[in-house]
Write a structure and sequence with these properties.
6% helix; binds FE2/S2 (inorganic) cluster
């Protein structure tokens, strides 16, 4: 496994190839909020949503259970050269990648998770 060098919020960082942006940020001490990311579960990308969710005795049925999940979107970051915001929990680092975790509002709030 090779080492990738990237920049997060202007701070140089290194990570093994195959590491997600989220993991690289955490190792560099940079906080990115998450909701659906869990270390024991695969990324939500491509996963089918639950057909039914229970909140106590309330049963909530999914209106579109056939659509693949895109995750919660809480971990979105800006990546230089990308037109949309990127889900950091499901995107692997690349050599020379420049990541900004604090939204500047310069990119549309699109989702590509
Ligand atoms: S933490 Fe939910 S999409 Fe990344």
């Amino acid at each position: 496994m090779s080492t990738v060098t990237l920049t997060i919020n202007g701070q140089p960082a290194e990570a093994s190839s195959g590491t997600t942006i989220l993991e690289a940020a955490r190792r560099a001490g940079i906080y990115i909020p998450t909701l659906c990311d869990h270390p024991d579960l695969p990324p939500a990308k491509g996963s089918l949503a639950a057909k039914i969710i229970y909140q106590g005795i309330l049963k909530i049925e999914n209106a579109a259970p056939q659509e693949a999940g895109k995750g919660c979107g809480l971990c979105l970051v800006e990546v230089q050269g990308e037109t949309d915001l990127i889900g950091s929990c499901a995107t692997e680092v690349r050599q020379g990648m420049m990541v900004i975790t604090k939204m500047t509002g310069s990119k549309p709030r699109g989702r590509r998770i």
